[in-house]
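Appendix B. Raw example, untouched.
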Amino acid sequence: MNLTGIELDIHTGVRTALVIALIALILSVWFGVLSIRKARRLPFFRMRRVTMLRGWRLLGWAVIWAILALLLNSKVEPFIYGFYPPTVTATLTRTPTLSPTISLTPTLTLSPTITLTPAVSNTPTVTSTPFMPLAVETLFQSTITPNADAIFSELTFTDGLDSMYRPLKPGKNFSHPIDHIYAVFSYDKMVVGSQWTALWLRDNELIHYETIPWNGGSGGLGYTDWQPDPSAWLPGDYEVQLFVGAIFKVAGLFTIEGEPPTPRPSPTATASLTPTRTSTATRTPRPTPTPRPSPTIRPTQGPYQSPTPTTKPTAYPTLTRTATPTATLTRTPTLTATPTPTAAP
């Protein structure tokens, strides 16, 4: 619209009215407060009352101006646009006039140069998604289906933990001497008894793994660790990968710097002479006793006496031992009985 020859749009007009309302608000408050203060100092009741009413009236106008300023700032401009939609005004851009230029005739023709092709191109290698090695997958023990929605946080590496499994000195670079490395993580939505696996790689080569059924809770703080001989921590880039079943979850990287210590010497077994057990002497069985021979009756000599038998034991057999370990029993021949003489008439 045109106002006294000045072109104003709706937005500018609303902002101008808002500034006027704010100025009127400030003046109404200022003069109203002055009138009230002045009325308190007047000695006459009628004049004091009129001045007091004028002050409160100005404060009332200040409230009206405040409401009007609030409406002008938030409601009036959208209300006006409801009746007068804004139109896009085309802006005229001056087109520059091209002046004719003098064409230069080339006096020397440049021959094309040979473009050198680099022998090796720095093409970034494609990083594949980590996968479960078949040799490790054959060691799975759990038959419980893992939760594919299980969540693992990023891995935090440290060489020590406190009693709450929190890392003491987290970092990405470690220098020798190194004995024990932990990979700490938080987890959620795990199923107890499902298979989980941690793979430790050095320069993309598998050097250690652990795969067991999950024995923690459904959520909390956990870790995987490796504690080999200190000489096994060779310098290089290490990676730890976590799997739930055969599903990859998270991986983390850390670096070992410095030369590892010398491997500990292994004890050498010394051959010792084993005493040969010698057999003891065979026990020689005792000889079987020989039964004593029956006594022999000798005749009594007399012309007219009947023979009275008298018993007289014969000699006992004697045992003879030889010097050899086995005792040899020698037996004397058995005495035969002599014939009994017949008594004479």
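End of appendix B.
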